[in-house]
Design goal:
Number of helices: 3
Radius of gyration: 14 Å
Keywords: Membrane, Transmembrane, Transmembrane helix
Number of strands: 0
Protein name: DUF3784 domain-containing protein
Structural class: mainly alpha
Helix content: 55-70%
Organism: Gracilibacillus oryzae
Oligomer: single chain
InterPro entries: UCP037672
Number of domains: 1
Distance between the termini: 47 Å
Length: about 90
């Protein structure tokens, strides 16, 4: 059991809950609330992805997954993709 992955997974799960369910979009760094046309969609997309990654990190922590860098790379690539998507589709020009 890898406690570091469990802690990171728990924090990601909490962040996903706060952003996705509670709509705490102020927790998202680097986006201008005045320019986003659909804050609910942004919160659901980012919160859902971060929550799912939190569950994956927790499962990896329980089963002692050895390739942690793969999980971190998937997390960063997914968040980068969400940044691009939200800037193209959800931001008013």
């Amino acid at each position: 059991m890898n406690t570091d992955l469990l802690i990171i997974g728990g924090l990601l799960l909490l962040m996903g809950f706060l952003v996705g369910v509670k709509k705490q979009t102020w927790l998202l760094s680097g986006f201008n609330e005045k320019r986003v046309s659909n804050k609910d969609r942004l919160a659901k997309l980012v919160g859902g992805f971060v929550g799912i990654m939190g569950v994956i990190f927790i499962i990896a922590g329980v089963f002692s997954f050895q390739s942690v860098m793969i999980l971190v790379a998937i997390l960063f690539l997914g968040l980068f993709g969400l940044i691009i998507y939200s800037n193209v589709k959800l931001v008013d020009q």
